[in-house]
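Encode chain A's predicted structure.
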Amino acid sequence: MTEAAASTTETSAPDRARTLLAGAVNLPEADLPADAAIGSLEGWDSLAHIRLITALEEALERPLTTEEVIGVNTLDSITALLPG
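Encoded structure for chain A:
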């Protein structure tokens, strides 16, 4: 089990989603609004999206489908992909 996967079993899906998104957009978790979305969160650009997709795939230990990649556009949609 990878370190990223091991850490996914220790916290809730919403907490893991916040951590992944904060890391991708280089913001403190506390600065992420609950309604964070790709069009409204400063720093969530194309490069941040690639970082987020990569982090999600590592956490899930599988590649995301095309539909999942397209659907990752809000903090809630990230949470929905994560177990727990």
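The longest helix spans residues 46-60.
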